[in-house]
Amino acid sequence: MLRKEFSLWWRTRKWWVHLLVWLVIMGGIAAARIISSIHDGLTPAETFAEVIQPLLVIGGVAMVGHA
User: Fold this and answer.
1) What is the spatial distance between Cα 22 and Cα 16, in angstroms, rounded to a whole number?
2) Measured between alpha carbons, how far is 26 from 18 in angstroms, rounded to an integer?
3) pTM of whole model > 0.70?
4) What is the C-alpha to C-alpha distance for residues 29 and 3, in angstroms, rounded to an integer?
5) Buried b / exposed e across 18-39, counting CB within 10 Å, b at 16+?
6) Per-domain residue ranges of the chain
7) pLDDT tens-digit profile of 4-41?
8) Whole-number Å distance between alpha carbons of 17 and 44
9) Helix axes 44-66, 14-40, angle to 10 degrees
10) End-to-end Cα spacing for the chain
């Protein structure tokens, strides 16, 4: 039964599209935060905090949306 359910998702192109869309969205957000942090003169630790926070929030919201 599990194999049947997984095949409904993994044997389609839909998961590739989702993967690429989420990579572009998350990568774009991270790049924008890194660029703005560099312009603000933040330290690497502060830059990491600036980048990781929105990624965790968006990832958490996305996971709750699928539950």
Assistant:
1) 10
2) 12
3) no
4) 35
5) eeeeeeeeeeeeeeebeeebee
6) 13-66
7) 888 888 888 888 998 899 899 889 989 998 999 889 89
8) 33
9) 150
10) 20
